[in-house]
Amino acid sequence: MKYFRLLFVWFALSVLISSCREDVDASALQVYDGPMNSAENIHLIQSDSAIVRSEIRAAKQLEFANGNIEFPEGIEIKFFEKDGTLGTTLEADRGYFLKQENTYKGEGNVRVNNLIKDQKLQSEELFWEQNKKRIYTEKFVTVQDGQTLFNGTGLEADDTFTNYEIKNPRDSRVLMPGEGN
Hints:
Layout: H1 2-19, E1 37-48, E2 51-63, E3 69-71, E4 75-80, E5 86-92, E6 94-98, E7 103-114, E8 119-129, E9 134-145, E10 148-158, E11 164-174
Antiparallel strand pairs: 1-2, 2-3, 2-4, 3-6, 4-5, 5-7, 6-7, 7-8, 8-9, 9-10, 10-11
Signal peptide: 1-21
Organism: Algoriphagus halophytocola
Protein name: LPS export ABC transporter periplasmic protein LptC
């Protein structure tokens, strides 16, 4: 009889304790994965031996906990020659810095302009690997090299867009006078 009374008390206490527990909303426990910091009108300059090598401008920057950065309102990157003159520009509707890969990514209307060699590139996506000093894409590209227009899928170039290779070229043509400027 003592055994049943003890069992009954234990059962009653366990029901009482479990019935008082409050259920927690699982969504309240989710980890926040939004931006940790934001900045407006950023202007970053990278130099070497007091000579500007590249310059980055963006209207808005969002930094995340994993170190990735987003430029939701566009990004402009300028590359300078060894003598300090502006050589190449890169602009995109949206930009990203992927920290783990140490790579910048441009999306939307991506444009590269080599001012020295009169070369222009347009694509919907482009990557810039800072350490390897190269730009590349697997997307469709249009390259204007002087008065010649090249189209293709996939491109790899040095980061100044001086030397480039279109991986799957198609449909090239010479521009008519006044076209493409």
